[in-house]
Structures are given as structure tokens and as C-alpha cells.
Amino acid sequence: MGHTFSIRLANLVVQVATLHAATYELCQSYLCDKDCPFDISVSVRQRDIDHERTQDVQGAFDDPYYETLAVYRAIAEELPRFGRMLVHGSAVAIGNRSWLFMAPSGTGKSTHARWWRTAFANENPYVINDDKPIVRVGEDGVFVYGTPWDGKERLSTNACARLAAIGLLKQGEQDFAQRADTHSATPELMRHAYRPVSANAARSTIELVLKIAEEVPLFHLRVTDSIQAAHAARAALDDVRPQGQSDNCFLQGRDRET
Q: Is the distance from CB of 6 to CB of 13 less than 8 angstroms?
């Protein structure tokens, strides 16, 4: 028995048709009226599920789990035509401002984001998405959106916040932050973006990455596993803010900050 439902992701309505119930259960916080007009429609078949299993070296999970991955991949293929893209990173926010940490898996981006939540607990920080957020590039700026595909720790919020800065993260013996040269840092930024199969979508993704690099301050971060690293990183990332922009962004499920 199949399942058809609609979710709202990054302010887009996505109609989803699946074979199993796992994706519907995963997306509970993002469900919307299935009869409302949709921007994207995705339908998963068994071959899509089998493809996701081939991408997993261990292949140790069941079909419903791999179907959740197949759904997000299908959505990610469509996002660039709406000025949006899936990225691999951990996005933490305070109020309506967010910081996105990008690094290869296992490097410590989630750990660093956790230190931010500890260091700035009095400011009520929250995780927008700890693994695979969506980034939107528009005339009003660059924003990060939560999704239910949020990594092994299952940390995410159905929210949106303006992207204040991006930290390209590496582990280090000392805490160090340096403003990145846009031209040289763009390839690294591209490595953390989902690369669509479609040639048109791939070109659009490159254009989005270039716009992000132009509009959002990029930093090389070397961080220790410590609360001091969070303080040092924020001091550097907050040193340069996008000019001429307000911090207003609607947070689904939260009050608008003023």
C-alpha cells in the first residue's frame, strides 16, 4: 500500500509518493495539506530504493530507511530551479541569524555546533539542521532552512534563518579563524553541495554556489574540541556581517524575532 502526502520544505510544497510509511513518519513536523498546490512532485520506485542501498558500503538497513534517502535525493534534484540547494553541513542559529559549518563527515562539525549551543546557551541557540540543510539564495539574501533529514543525532528545527557566515572546518591543536579568499574557497564550498545528475540543475547549483560565495562571508576554521573554540569562532565570524541587510526571516514554529 502506497503513501501520498505533502510537506513544506524551504517554503516550497513538495508532494511525495512512497511505498513505505517511514518518510511520512520522518516528515511529521513538515506536513501540510496534501490538497494544496505543489511546487515539486516526487515518486519513489523500488529501483530508487535499491540505488540508495548500492551507495551504502554496508547496506545494512531496510527498504523503508533507504526510501527516505531516495525521497530527499529526488527533492534535491529539483531544488536548484527554485534557487535552492541541499548542502552537507551543520547549521546553528541564534534568533534569526545562522552560521553554517562545513566539513567532511567525521571532522567534527556537529561537535563544534554542540559547543556553540553550550557556549551561548543564554541566547537560546538552536540547530536548524545538523547534517543536510537547504540553502536558498534570493534577492532578499541567503537563508538556511531546516529539514527532517538531519543526521544520526536527529537534530533539526523546522525554521529558517539568514545565513550570517560559513565556516569551512578542520580540526586543529589551536583555535584559528581566517577570512577565506572567495575565489579559492569556492571549490571547497562546491564539494559540500549536492551535485544533481541533471545538467541544467548542475549548472544552476554552480551559479548558486558562486552567489553564496559572493554574498556570505567565508572563513577557514581550525578548532579544538572545546568551548573556547566556539567563542573564538563566533568572534571571527561575527566580525564581518552582510551589509545593508536586515535579519528578518520567518521561523516556522517560532516567533519572529525583533
A: yes
